[in-house]
Amino acid sequence: MSSVAYLCGFGPLLLDLAEAPLEIRCNTNHSPQIMRNLLSGLVQMGFVLPCPAMAGIQMETLWRSPIVAVAAAGHPLAEREQPRYLEVAAAYRIAPQYWGVECDELIRRLRLARTVAQPIHAVQPASAARELALRHGFLCFMPELSI
Question: How far apart are alpha carbons 112 and 70 in whole angstroms?
Fold first, then answer.
């Protein structure tokens, strides 16, 4: 084994690395912790969602994943064929997977579009958002690679 890479939720990258001369260990953590593990030498490679750069770590964008809406097949928005608008989505129970300041902006816009105040739950990890969408009727927004 020449090195160990820690990653999770990056399926397309994981598939490409599976044939590389390294052993892969999947671990989920917040980006700052992954960066601390890199600096300490605990891991040699890590994959993080966009976050501030840290001295001593070389970062480059390897993948961009669009934010998509996720709902169960029986959800009223999943059955619509017309384009969906934020004002329409705002009426439903919402639980985005929290991905950063852009998520905060989405939540702000959804609140402004609501006619009735209801909570918006920003959750982690991706599996929690998927669970709320697929089993409990929530509309979730998340990076496509997390689905």
Answer: 21
- Written in H, E and C, the secondary structure of 90-141 is CCCCECCECCCHHHHHHHHHHHHHCCCCCCECCECCHHHHHHHHHHHCCEEE
Report if pTM > 0.85. no
Q: Tens of pLDDT along 53-89?
A: 888 888 888 777 889 999 999 999 988 776 578 889 9
Tokens of 52: 């501030």
Cα(50)–Cα(44) distance, rounded to whole angstroms?
A: 19
Residue 65 token pair? 């994943």
Amino acid symbol at 63: W
Q: Which residues, in sequence order, are bridge partners of residue 68?
A: 142
Contact 72, 140 (CB under 8 A): no
Phi, psi for 29 (deg, rounded to 5): -160, 170
